[in-house]
Amino acid sequence: MNLDQVLGIVLTPEGELYPFGKQNSDEAGKTSVKDSHGGSFMRDVVPTAWFQSLNYKFTPMDAFSHFNRLTDMGYGFFINGSVISYPNICYHAYTVQMPYSMTDAQKEVLSQQYDYLSQLVEEEQADFYGQVFDSPTYVPVTREVDDFYQTLGILPKEKSAR
Fold it and tell me: What domain range is 146 assigned to?
């Protein structure tokens, strides 16, 4: 996984990962505005056969609402919300939103990504937001990677070996 280099990654119920967008900086070190989350998703994911089979009308103007609806439909998202504008601003933030009723394939992928996500958040001193959608009860946003995994009932492989 390369979440720090893309704007987002979709996790399908089958456990497949589809990255979209690029976390780019121009020569002056400012983040490119040409590559928005919605525009990137429209360009990189919407044309794929699996997305077309959903018959879902996606518009880039309201991308995050669409991501929420798609999560309710069983798709997971890893979102890079970092802002990098040198030399003044360098803010790292990552959101992971998953459906409450994850498939075994999604649980396996998420379990495999525990080390990566934990290390990424720690090394970049990033904000982390773990969200669970379509749950039978309200689940508050989780700010720690470990708490998010615990909320989903996933024991990361790295932790099981300890």
Answer: 3-160
